[in-house]
Design a protein that fits this description.
The complex is a heterodimer.
Chain A (H helix, E strand, L loop, with lengths): L8 H20 L10 H11 L13 H16 L6 E2 L3 H18 L3 H9 L4 H21 L8 E2 L2 H20 L4 E7 L2 E7 L16 H18 L3 H11 L3 H19 L17 H18 L3 H9 L3 H19 L13 H18 L6
Antiparallel strand pairs in A: 1-2, 3-4
Helix pairs in contact in A: 1-8, 1-10, 2-13, 3-7, 3-8, 3-12, 4-11, 4-13, 4-14, 5-6, 5-10, 6-9, 6-11, 8-12, 9-10, 11-14, 12-13
Chain B lengths: L1 E4 L7 H13 L2 E7 L2 H13 L3 E7 L2 E8 L1
Parallel strand pairs in B: 1-2
Antiparallel strand pairs in B: 2-4, 3-4
Classes of the chains: A mainly alpha, B alpha+beta.
Chain lengths: 372, 70
């Protein structure tokens, strides 16, 4: 296989097929249903494990996130594409990451999971994908109108290694499971100090469901490697079709859905319907709006959550800031009762989506070239 | 030859700038400067989609993509 294979149509299709099958298998091996890989959900679980939110059912240091970054770093180093760079409106990217996560947690999934939910028979995903497409479409209008977050600048190589090093630190904590929390507890009038998390690990719920660490990590490293080589991006796929009628990336996401669907059939994980889908709700309006917010934020930031992780692995400090924004956003989403549950949208989720859309629209208008 | 400096810009900006340049120039040659392999490949693909020919040269971390439009 020559180095340029992944730049071809068949290359991107092969990567989509691999991710689709790998995701279905990760579910089969223990990951939550229709969540073989979900960057938003997995970063949310990491936020929970670190105590940035206290939703007890979604706390786990997901090795998949670490693997994506490390796999990308390996590919970038091997193929001499590692370039430390930063400086393109990091605070804007941080906030876009936060709101992208909030939107994703109102829908309950990132674009990868939207595709996997569809491939598992969860028709609510169609509503989310429609919202995602509209959000990206609005982003394309801004791009056509001169929207631009500005240039990045070359940085010292170490700057680009910080995100991979954070991932190594997270992996060390996953292995050692340290308990950093100290809390006072009064029992029968006697005050004692108890040792607790973080790091937190869910005892029940989606956070307690996981494929074996080594399997998750190795599969994710492979995905990270391939995604770096192929530039796999769900947001970019839709954007390129709308913007330039370029169907290159979209052939990868179609391949992902087809492969995950076929694998789900074989593994008996295909359960078609609207109601009772795992880690999903049936509120069409907020499934649509949540993903519309995410799609808009992704397009303004230049990549879906998976792509941002991959970029952060190849030295892009601005993508790393977006990722950190997503993780902090997950903390807000659960602490502020914004994240949906299978029962439906949370009390303040819809308001947060509206605020997020308003923020993104302001960014879209304010960051046009003519105003720069 | 018109030159577009898309260095430091992430996708899709280099593609948007290249497409704008191709639309404005009628026929002839256009040079697009980029500083990532991703941008290089994307600009080349965008040019091919427009029926143009491309020629690439590399210098350090940067690439020059010459787009020829007939």
């Amino acid at each position: 296989m020559k180095a340029g294979f992944f730049a071809t149509r068949w290359g991107i299709v092969a990567v989509g097929l691999f991710i689709g099958v790998a995701a279905a298998l990760l579910q089969y091996w223990g990951n939550p249903p229709n969540m073989g890989v979900c960057v938003a959900c997995m970063e949310r679980d990491i936020a929970g494990a670190l105590g940035l939110h206290r939703a007890a059912v979604v706390q786990y240091l997901r090795p998949e996130i670490m693997g994506f970054v490390i796999g990308s770093l390996i590919a970038a180093l091997l193929f001499r594409e590692y370039r430390a760079r930063t400086g393109s409106a990091p605070i804007v990217r941080f906030c876009l990451g936060m709101f992208a996560m909030i939107g994703a947690l109102v829908f309950l999934g990132c674009p990868w999971r939207a595709l996997l939910r569809l491939a598992g028979g969860d028709w609510n995903a169609l509503v989310g994908i429609a919202g995602l497409t509209v959000g990206i479409g609005v982003g394309v209008l801004f791009l056509k109108g001169g929207y631009n977050l500005g240039r990045t600048y070359k940085a010292k190589p170490f700057a680009g290694l910080i995100m991979p090093l954070i991932m190594v630190a997270l992996f060390a904590m996953l292995m050692a499971k340290p308990l950093f929390g100290r809390a006072k507890q009064v029992v029968d009038g006697v005050e004692t100090m108890i040792i607790t998390g973080p790091v937190f690990f869910s005892a029940e719920g989606p956070g307690s469901m996981a494929a074996p660490v080594a399997v998750s990590l190795l599969v994710a490293i492979a995905i990270g490697f391939l995604a770096q080589r192929s530039r796999f991006c769900t947001m970019g796929a839709v954007r390129d079709v709308i913007l330039t009628r370029d169907f290159h990336l979209v052939s990868g996401i179609v391949a992902l859905v087809v492969a995950a669907f076929a694998a789900n059939l074989v593994l008996k994980q295909f359960h078609p319907g609207w109601e009772g889908q795992p880690i999903a709700h049936t509120n069409h309006l907020w499934n649509f709006m949540g993903m519309a917010l995410s799609g808009l934020a992704f397009s303004l930031a230049g990549g879906c959550p998976g792509r941002q992780l991959i970029l952060s692995g190849e030295g892009d400090g601005d993508a790393a800031v977006f990722v950190l924004g997503m993780i902090v956003g997950a903390g807000f989403a659960h602490n502020f009762t914004l994240a949906s549950s299978p029962a439906g949208p949370a009390l303040f989720g819809p308001a947060a989506v509206v605020i997020g859309i308003v923020f993104c629209l302001i960014v879209g208008f304010a960051m046009r070239e003519k105003f720069a | 030859m018109k030159q577009i400096d898309a260095r430091g810009l992430s996708c899709p900006q280099p593609v948007i700038m290249a497409r704008k340049g191709m639309a404005e120039m009628g026929s002839g040659k256009l040079e697009v400067l980029v500083d990532s392999v991703t941008s290089r490949d994307n600009v080349m693909r965008a040019a091919r989609l427009e029926g143009c020919e491309t020629e690439v040269s590399a210098k350090d971390d940067e690439f020059s993509v010459i787009i020829s439009k007939k």
